[in-house]
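Field guide to reading this record: the first block holds the primary sequence, the second block holds the structure written as C-alpha cells, and the final block holds curator observations. Each block starts with its own label. This record concerns Fibronectin type III domain-containing protein, catalogued under organism Candidatus Kentrum sp. DK.

BLOCK 1 — SEQUENCE
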Amino acid sequence: MPRFPKAEPQVQSQIHEIISGLEAHPDVFPNPPVGAKDLEKLFNTYMASFETAKDKQAEASHAIDIKNEDLETAVEAAKRILRYAENETDSDDSKLKYLGWGGRRPANALRQPGQTRALEAPRQGAGWIFLDWKAPDEGGKVAAYKIQRREEGTQDWIDVGTAIETEATVSGQPGGKQFVFQVVAINKAGVGAPSNGVLATL
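BLOCK 2 — STRUCTURE
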C-alpha cells in the first residue's frame, strides 16, 4: 500500500485529488466516512491557517502549531477515506486512481519446494551413514531437508533426521539391516518430491 505523503505540497495535492475523485465518482465511493464537502471544509480551514502562518511571521510559532493541528485533522480524515476506498473497491487500482491512490500489491504466494536431486552416500559405517545431495532446481525456497529411511522390502518411511545444508551424517541407526534412504525438501507451503533412494547396509 502506498504511503500518505508528508511534505505539505504533496499533502495538498493528495487531498485535492481525493476531493475531486469523491465528487466525480459517487458511484464508486457512495458512503465515505468523510464526505468531499466536509474534507474540503477541513482543507480550507487548514489553508487559511497556512496563509495566516505565512502572513504573520512574528507570530509564526503559534500559527504553525494551529496549522499543523488543522493539517493533522485533515490528514486523518483523508486517510479514513482512503481506508474506506480500499475496502469499498477491494483495493482495485483502476478505481483507487480516481483518488490519486493505489491499491495493495498482492503478496507472492510461497510454493512448496521441488524435488531434491542426486542423493549419494559416499561414506558409511556401523550404525551411521553420510549423505549428500543437491538442492531442488525448481519450486519454492527450501527451509530445511528431512531425511527418511525404510527397511528394504517395506514401504514404511520413517523420519531419521533433518538438515539445513545439503549434507548430513545420520547416526544411531540399527546395524545388520539393509535400508533405503531418501531426502525431501520442506518449507511452510509443504513437502517437495522425494529424492532418489540409496541402499545401504549399516
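BLOCK 3 — OBSERVATIONS
Helices lie at 8-24, 36-55, 60-89, 93-96.
The beta strands are 117-125, 128-134, 144-151, 158-163, 167-170, 178-187, 190-191, 198-201.
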